[in-house]
Structures are given as C-alpha cells and as structure tokens.
Design goal:
The structure holds two protein chains of two kinds. Chain A is an all-alpha fold. Chain A has a single domain, classed as Cytochrome C Oxidase, Chain A (Up-down Bundle). Chain A is built from 15 helices and two strands. A two-stranded antiparallel ribbon of chain A has the order 1-2. Chain B starts with a helix and ends with a helix. The chains are: A mainly alpha, B alpha+beta. Bound molecules: protoporphyrin IX containing FE and copper (II) ion (2 copies).
Amino acid sequence: MGDHHHGPAKGLSRWLFTTNHKDIGTMYLWFSFAMFILGGFFAMIIRAELFQPGMQLVEPAFFNQMTTLHGLIMVFGAIMPSFVGLANWMIPMMIGAPDMALPRMNNWSFWILPPTFLLLASTLFMDGGAPAAGWTFYAPLSTTYAAPSVTFFIFSIHVLGLSSIMGSINIIATVMNMRAPGMTYMKMPLFVWTWLITAFLLVAVMPVLAGAVTMMLMDVHFGTSFFSAAGGGDPVLFQHVFWFFGHPEVYIIILPAFGVVSQIIPAFSRKPLFGYDSMVYATASIAFLSFIVWAHHMYTVGMPVAGELFFMYATMLIAVPTGVKVFNWITTMWRGALSFETPMLFCIGFLVLFTIGGFTGLMLSIAPADFQYHDSYFVVAHFHYVMVAGAVFSMTAAIYYWLPKWCGRMYNETMGKTHFWISFIGFNLTFFPQHFVGLAGMPRRIPDYALQFADFNMMSSIGAFIYGASQILFLYNVIATIVAGKPVSDEKVWDGAEGLEWTVPTPAPYHTFEKPPKIDPAHAHS
Amino acid sequence: MCFEAKRLLKLALGPVLMLMSAIALASGGEVNQVNMSPGATHVGERIYDLHMVILGICTVIGIGVFGVMFYSIIYHRKSKGHKPSHFHESTKVEIAWTVVPFLILIGMAVPATSTLLEIYDFEDAEMDILITGYQWKWKYEYIDENGENVSFFSNLRTPQSEIYNSQPKGEHYLLEVDEPVVIPVDTKVRFLVTANDVIHSWWVPELAVKKDAIPGFINEAWTRAAEEGVYRGQCAELCGKDHGFMPIVVNVVSKDEYNDWLATKQAEAAEIKELMAQTFTMDELMARGKAVYDRACLACHGANGEGGVGKAIAGSPIATGELGGHLNVGINGVPGTAMQAFGGQLNDVEMAAVITYQRNAFGNNMGDAVQPIDIYNFKKG
Ligand code: HEM
Ligand SMILES: [Cu+2]
Ligand SMILES: [Cu+2]
C-alpha cells in the first residue's frame, strides 16, 4: 500500500474533490447550518411583521415569499442535509466501515446542493419574486397563478431530489455491504437502523415529488392541465401526489432524530436502551404506516366519508409505535445514573417537546376536530414542536455529543447549557401560544391578523427573536471549540457512551477502520 | 411567609389561574382566547367535546410519562450517587404499552366516527347557498327555485389606512365585510363551496364549517346555527397575495328577518334584471358609471384616471380605442396583472356604465354610449 491516502489534500481542492466521508459529512453539516441561518433570518422577518397587527415592514406578496422560502429552506436545506451529514460522519464509524460504499457519488450528492440553493434563493431577485405558494405549493396557485420563477423552483426541487436519492442509495449500499464482520443487522446502533429505514423512505418518495413538480412544469410550459380544472384536470390530484411524498417526508425528518436520541439517552443514563428490538420494529412500522396516512392533510378537501374514516384510523394508529418509542426512552432513563451534559439536556428537551407535538398530532388525526384545527396556527404549533424541538433539538444534541470525537476538543459546557436553556425558553415562548391563537381561529400564512390575537403574537415574536439569538451562541461555541477548545484524547469521550465510534482515537483520524474491527459476538448492540 | 414570597407566588400563579378560567369560559372571538369555542351549532359542540376529551387523555398520559421522567431526573442522578441498574427488554411491559394505547385509540375512534358521520349528513337541508372563492373576495348566491336568485360579492371593509397604520384600527379589524351573508337561525343551511381561480377555504369557526373551495369542484358543507348573532371567519387556504384579507361575516337572524332581507334582495335583483333590458341616456350612464368607477376602479386607476397600480385611463389607447378591446379588458381583465376580470363581478348595467364613463371622462371623449345589451352580446361572444 502506498502512503497516498494518509492525510487530506491541501487547500480548496481537498474539499472540492474529496471522497472522504468525514470531509463530506463536515461540508454537509456546515452547509446545513448556513441554510439554518438563512431560513432563520426569513423567519425573523416573518415574526417581525407579525409582531403587531397592521402591515409594518413588508408587503403581503413578499411575506408569502418569506413563508415559502423559510419552509423550503428549513426542510430541504437545513434539516435534511444536516442528518445526511451526520450519517456520513457516523454510519461508517458505527458499523466499522472504512468509508461510504460509493464515495464519488457521495461527493456529487453534496456538491450539487449549494448551487441549487443559490438558485432557489436567487428567485427572490427575479421578476415577480420568489415562489409564494407555501412549502406545500398547492396548484393552481403554484402553476397558473405563479410568478415565472416557479420554473427555477421546479428545477431546484429536481436537483434536491437527485441529491437525496443519491445520498440514500449510498447509505443503503453502505449499511448492507460494508458492515464489519460480526456486525449483524440486529447489532447495528439504532442511528444506523433509523437511517437505513429513512433511506428507503427517501428512495420511495422523492421520485413522487419529482413527478409532482414535473406535472407542474408541464402545466406551466407545455399546455397540459394536470392540475387545472378548466382544462379537465384536477387540483386535488396535486395534493394527493404531494402528500404521498409529504407525509413520509416528515418521518424522513424525524426518524434519524429518533436514532440520535436513542444513542444519547443510554449514554447519559449509563444503562442500555430498554427495548432495542421493539425500537427497530417501531421504526419500521412507523415507516410503513407513513405511506397510508397522507390524506390526513386533506380532511377538508371534500373526500368521501369512507376515505376520511380510513385515513383517520390509519393516522391514529401511528400514535402506537410513536408511543412505544417515547416509553422506551423514558424506561431507559428509569433507574439509570443520569447526568445532564448539554447533549442530554437537548435530548430531554426533545423528549418533552416532541411528546407534546405527538399529542397535538393525535388531536389533529381526529378528522372532525381537524375541521377546526386545519390550516390554523394550531397546525403551525404542532409541526414546529415535532420538527424544531424534534429534529433540530436532536441534531443540536448530536453536534454537542460527537463534536469532541470529531475535533478532539471539548466544547464549553456552561455555554452549551446556556444555549439549551435559552433555546428551550425561546422555543416554547414562540410556539406554545400558537396553539392558543390557532384554537381561537387564526389561520396560518397570513401577514396580518385581527386584534384579539395581538398579545400572543407579540409573545411569539419575542420568543422567536430569543430562539434565533441563541443560535449565535451555538455557532460561537462550536467555532471556539474547533479553534481553541480544551483538548481531549480519551477514545471514549463520555464515560457512558457505547459503540465502535468510541473505539477509534480522538480526534477521529482521517481514515478509520481501514482494517475491520473485531466485534465481540457476545456483546450486544450499543 | 414574607411579603415578597407572597407576591412572587401571585405573579407565578396569576397567569395560570387566568389561563384556567379562560379555558373554561372560552367563547368565540374573544381577546386572548386560548381554546376552541363550541360555537353556535350542535356539531360545533360535539367537535368541542371531542377536542376536550382527546386533550384530557393526552394531558393524563402526559402527566404520567413526564412524571416518571422527572422522577428519574430527580432521584436517579449520578451526582446523587445512584448506581445504574442494567435491566432491559421486558416483553410484558412492551405488550402492555402497545395494547393499552391501542384500546384508548379505539375509545377515541368511536365518538370521532359518529361526529364525522353527522358532519357528512347533508340530507334535509332547508336551503342552499353557493359560495365561490375569488382572489380575494367571496361571492354568495342564494339558490331559490321560486324567486329571483340573489347573488353578491363580499369584500373586506377594513380601509387600507387602518392596515397601514395611519388610522386607529377598528374593533373588527380585518374581520369586517361590505356585505355579510345572511342566514336564518335554526335552519339547516347547506353550503355549496367552489372557487373561481385558486383554492380557498371557507372557515367560520363558530359555525363549525371549514371547507376547501376548489376550482372545478363543488364541495358540500352545512350548518344549523342555534343562536342569532354575527359570526366571523377567514379564508383558511393560502390563495395568494391577499389571502389574509378576505374575511367572512355571517349574520344569523330570525326567520322573519331573513325573509324580509331576502325579499328586499330579490326585489333589487328583479330591478337590475329590468334595468338590463333598458336603454339608458348618456347622462344616466355617466352618472351610474362614475359611481361604479369610484367604488371598483378608482383604487388602482386614480380619481382622475391618472393611473397608479393600474395604467392611466385618461388618454389610454384602450379606453380611447376600439370598443371591443375596451370591453375585453373590462370583462376579461388582463391575465397576469392586477387587472382582474370584472365580468363576473359587475352586472351588465354597471359594466356598461363604467365603460361608458371611462370612454367619456378624464378628457376622453369618444361619445359612444354602451348599453347593457352590448355587454350581454359581448359576453355571449
Ligand atoms: C404522532 C405522530 C403524528 C401525527 C398523528 C401527526 C398528525 C398530523 C396531522 C393530522 C396533520 C395535518 C394537520 C392539518 O393540516 O390539519 C399534521 C401536520 C403536520 N405534521 Fe404531523 N403528525 C405526527 C407527527 C409528526 C412528525 C414527527 C412530524 C415531522 C417531524 C410532523 C410534521 C408535520 C407537518 C410539517 C405538518 C404540516 C404540514 C403543512 O400543512 O404544512 N408530524 N400532522
Ligand atoms: Cu402527515
Ligand atoms: Cu385564502
């Protein structure tokens, strides 16, 4: 063997041409953080406009562009790539593989992202402005009635889909083929399991989204009428296709988060996960169910009552495996030896707030009640409890948890805890009152509102600014750690942590597991 | 207890108590309302009950789950020297926490199903109203086999000056319209909901109706208001720029009052029908036209036809050009611009008048008087 691959190349070409899973993971993570800041900035504009009744800062048309881009960027630019980044870093290290199975494709799946988001953001400066039909872009508002920039939006979605599919294929190939000898499926860490299932979901539904936007493209440019009633088409078809993608998508977002939490809670409880097998089965059932509940987003479109009932029952069922997960995490903590470092705090925050989001999800699943909840701020509160307090909190936990392993330096614990508490308070101040205004009748996606909603909206805006500001602290802490954090050299950074990633040196060298590790056949999964 | 501590306690408990009393008393449209309102219908009450039951179940489960968690957090700390036990996997426990939630869900599904079936029971409606969503207003048509059909548009009444903060906001800011829908109390009213352009959604929380208005589809919904009153709602589906500015106001009145109102409306409709068959003099057309212009066109085209959001009418090549082109813009609008199709919004008399006015005001001097019959013929093609 030559010595050509002992360290990274120098300069920009290291990053442009890299096929190293750690480099690519790092790029994904930084990119997604940049998108998180951009999407967050748009959210600040939204909350500033909603600070009080009346139009103060922006025009209604621009407001709609902000809500649309905020949603798209957070879902496709921040949350999804961040978990792909984490998968890149951790999956090979967790299953004892030297790298991802398809390293060159890996480079591509990342590098097509930045130009795509640049393109998407540039629609803001185009004639007629950016897409403004919401992140769900219902036709015909997003087709016949859309600004010309919709074409660029469609192209962006295609490329994002491509990136996700390539990323998923890579993960599937890696997990199926590159596990170290002895690393059987039922020994894989849960993070790997949840990602494997997520990857299958992605491969199944991204093409459906691609189909939806392709039909939009045809309607806009080639005279078809898939979604235009005037030409014999069907606007509701769009919603069916979109949500056939969209509901699994929300699980694509949350399953890896479940995986992260299932790694971290046992570590800081110093006790194995309570029911590993049932966690795997629960994940698989959630994934399966996620394909047959999509129309719970469409209870008010006028479905026949039989359809309505089917989707209601199926949706209610999802609460069962979701409950299994929550009960498992709690029982894992039960009679452990708990300590509360920042990653654990974020996981506990996740547990509390995600459970609340699950409860509101269950409420939303009750079709007759959803007639009142639907498209109100209650739904906005629900999905921010599951997506921000669910996905983003767990991602934050993951960064604090594995950062010392990645860079061999410890973050500042006090600052981390401060970040948690500010985030936690800011988040709840932002989104809890949104349940109230939603129940009281405030529709979502409006730039201005009636006077009775004023106080809670002001609270919400103040909370949002606090939550937003706390991310600056996070950024500072991460950079300070990388540059000048206290060096750590223990392989096992956390005394309770289990898993192969804690058997490699700290900081993790550029290449790990070039020779497959020995896996103790008696040793259970981590 | 010292004074400070008491005060702190009050401060801490105050909002909680307020919240609890607010939850108990919530009725629609209140300032800082925190809960759903049962509203004014039986279905609304059933939905409210469902909502409270499921909220109650979730609260109880939540207290249990979080109780166990916080117990662990407090007592099973490493810093207190707690040693981890290493138990895991218990099939019994896992079966229990799968089956019990499942049973609770079945318990929930039963009332949910029966409520849903009630909502879907459109039989025996005593009257029909066709609701059409437009960007950004609602049109209501009362369908009546025996009398004139009555139809009108309902627009936001809140002035721009309130929205842009140059004037104090009124009590019903953004929830007021120029012409409310009127329905009789204690009557099963069926709504047929559709849209003309993009998808909208007709939502009045206190009447327990939310139904998407979808172009090319006619959806059904119904309500039976048990109490007279004014009920306010908004469009619930993002429908473009002014989605936040297309409110709904429903006046629920006594049956007598409703009949009077309908009779007046029908008389008006009959009058317009008659007018349509008439020929007007130039002066009559100009007078009517100015009224229509000031109401429907001025906002964009300016008080003196000087333009603004819309192009200038004074000296406009269209308004001083061939009549067909002008009619086309007025009736069909200019797609892709703020110039909407007014053909469905103004009646033929109004359209004839406003076109005449535009051709002969602001220094335009075409001298042609457009009659309602011309509009009728143009629309027919
Ligand atoms: C217990 C599990 C859950 C149930 C039963 C559930 C149920 C629902 C229902 C019925 C809706 C439609 C509400 C409406 O529009 O009227 C909804 C909306 C939504 N949910 Fe969930 N949900 C659950 C968990 C999640 C998770 C884990 C996520 C994502 C991480 C999520 C993300 C969303 C989003 C993004 C929307 C709104 C989409 C939109 O209209 O923009 N949900 N949920
Ligand atoms: Cu869903
Ligand atoms: Cu709307």
